Amino acid sequence: MEEQHRTEPRVTYCYRHPDRETGISCARCDRPICPECMVPAAVGFQCPECVRTGSGTGHAPSASMPRTLAGGVIAADRRLITKILLGLNVAVFIAVLVAGDRLVNSLLLFGQAVAQPYGPVEGVAAGQWYRLLTSMFLHQEVWHVAMNMLGLWFLGPPLEAALGRLRYTALYLLSGLGGSALTFLVSAPGQASLGASGAIFGLFGATAVLMRRLNYDMRPILILLGINLVFTFTWQGISWQAHIGGLVTGALIAYAMVHAPREHRRLVQYGACAAMFVIVVAMCVVRTLQLTS
């Protein structure tokens, strides 16, 4: 009786060549395509009709601009936002080298503490919520900023090409905020945290989701992610909260962006981003009440 419930693997055939089996689908219209019909794109492959029409649907010509896998506009420079984010991180790092601890203390993330003896209480719980964002661009050590920027340059451009600039920016910022919020929620009140690692781990999670969506070999990204997680939990001084918070946030947002149904794409994508932002705010409110009550 057990064999009656066994599900056989689904076999798909090229929509233009019904006699040819394939496991690849068009990145825009999702129709199965064989190697002869695959047209390389920025992310994945497209069918000849989608390339010819540039419509993003593959069924009829359209006056709209070509779209990415997630529905964003295809830009000429598909690394622009990545370059801007990298430049902001490097610029803040240079500013820290010039200004020193004074700038670091005003930007880093911590829940609640007295900065100086008999001084005012500072931190996120004291109303300085901007620290959730500013700490994402803050680094003190050369190795720290170098490792994070290497990860950004490696992971960012493919995601920017697949999602489009606006969606990619939302993914990066919300991943970083998710990491900051989890750090604030579970860390000791005076424990400081800084760095872009939360956002970078969000890109890791999003890359895994994207590769799964395109049926790519996931082993390279999973191995790299596994190595980074080992360092996260074994290397002293690393905020595992920021890494895990960013990873989960990035994966969830990316899933909503690349799996949203076409007829409700924007509603699902914008709704997922809004929901994640609400969760971040809720985590911060809960922790603030805990520290100030």
From TrEMBL:
Pfam families: Rhomboid. The chain crosses the membrane at residues 80-100, 142-163, 170-188, 194-214, 221-238, 244-260, 267-289. One of its GO terms (cellular component) is membrane. InterPro entries: Peptidase_S54_rhomboid_dom, Rhomboid-like_sf, Rhomboid_protease_S54. It is found in: Membrane. Keywords: Hydrolase, Membrane, Transmembrane, Transmembrane helix. Its main location: membrane. It is a multi-pass membrane protein. GO terms for molecular function: serine-type endopeptidase activity. It comes from the Bacteria. Residues 127-258 form the Peptidase S54 rhomboid domain. Belongs to the peptidase S54 family. This is Rhomboid family protein.
